[in-house]
Amino acid sequence: MNSSHPVGRAAVGPAVHRAAVATETAAFVAALDGADLSVPVPGCPEWTLRDLVRHTGSVQRLFSVLLRRLVQEPPRSREVELDLPTAEDGWADWLSASAAEASDAFAATDPDAPMWAWGVDQHARFWMRRMLFETLVHRTDAERAVGRRPVIDPALATDGVDEFLANLPFATSFAPHVARLRGKDETLRFRCTDTDGDWLVRLRPDGFVAEPRTGDAAAESADAGVRGTAADLLLLVYGRLDRGADTVETTGDEELLTRWFTNSAF
């Protein structure tokens, strides 16, 4: 995939990412209060709420280990000490403890420290940002599973769309269909209706790149377009919202839109 283009803008920085991991985890934990952990999760087929909690906390603990070690190459194993709860009513506390481990790792790590990352930004801040959106999206999954309507901060949602588009070209190791996102300079534009989030995705013969649009560049036309609130676009790119939803507007080349959403599953 084409990796020559720099990462998209980070609308918020590592300090905000770190604080938001704690806030998002607390909201996730609140959704577990009185919940049946065996209920299915709409955004994660075949997962129960218990599976979702275990996954999210495990990822937080894994990322914390990577940060503490400042790994310089892909880890050979993803096995870490999970200290899983022994009782069914211990999952909420366990998830809170996972976030506390992440907070400790953040406090001990310079976000600008060079380290290996699977995405474009080869610094510790990559994992802080990645952990936030892993937690945030799964928080919305948990809330939907228990019948709540998720609310997402627009600034965080905008940053989440940016993070997703910037890293997607590098996700082929676990999302192999991304390699099919090639073209002959076709363009797909994503625009937020409630923030200044605006990106142009250009499909090339060797892959694709997503470029934030600002100033005069924002007037550039595209072959297809997707518009919605930042929160809806974030849920859309993560497959939690269908592109036919009333809250999302799509225009232009239908084949290009179909190709993108069929192959960009994260």
From TrEMBL:
Residue intervals of the Mycothiol-dependent maleylpyruvate isomerase metal-binding domain: 20-142
GO MF, one annotated term: metal ion binding
GO cellular component, one term: plasma membrane
Domain of life where this protein originates: Bacteria
Entry-linked SUPFAM superfamilies: DinB/YfiT-like putative metalloenzymes
InterPro entries: DinB/YfiT-like, Maleyloyr_isom, MDMPI_C-term_domain, MDMPI_metal-binding, SCP2_sterol-bd_dom_sf
Coiled coil: none
Pfam families given in the database record: MDMPI_C, MDMPI_N
Keywords: Isomerase
Residue intervals of the MDMPI C-terminal domain: 156-258
PANTHER family in the cross-refs: CONSERVED PROTEIN
UniProt protein name: Maleylpyruvate isomerase family mycothiol-dependent enzyme
